[in-house]
Amino acid sequence: MAKAGLIPVVAQDVRTNNVLMLAYADREALAATKRTGLMHYFSRSRNRLWKKGETSGHVQRVVSLHYDCDRDAILARVEQEGPACHRGTYSCFAKGPFAARDVFQELWEVFDDRRRHPKPESYVCGLLAKPDRLLKKVGEEAVEFLLACRGRKRDEIVYEAADLFFHALLALYERRIPLDAVLKELEKRRGNPPHRTKPGGRRGRKN
Question: 169 lies in which domain range?
């Protein structure tokens, strides 16, 4: 039998605006959320209060809570620690129209995990420990991508592009620059004049 007084809660990643999950909350869960700053829900399967990440450690830190116009649903803007879905994916909707961005976000979570829990055998840890080596890898991968494009073999271009994206994203992470900052910069360029000034006085190009 369903518990009375439940309200649906949509959790949204404050960094990417992607929807992470849908759950339910009651008065007790909302009170615990506001008191602790961590998302709490009511588990219908276990019939009890549930703190997101209580067993996995993948907590959701509350940024803001918003009722809809009828006050019968809540949008929770959160900072997600690790994957949101119990299946280990960034979002419960990871196969939706924003799947590409979700993949980048999942990689970002991997980078964060390697920084917090270093492993001697980890390739990512090795590059994060030596930023100059990381930047050299970005340059090498850029050259390999260019050569693949000149060769015009589709599979090689895709493979080298993936390598370049991976190392460029890791370089952004090492500099503490979120992917969303780059996406916003690309959005700003749409429709701009062709000789837009870059930071530092250099000239940019429009899309």
Answer: 118-189
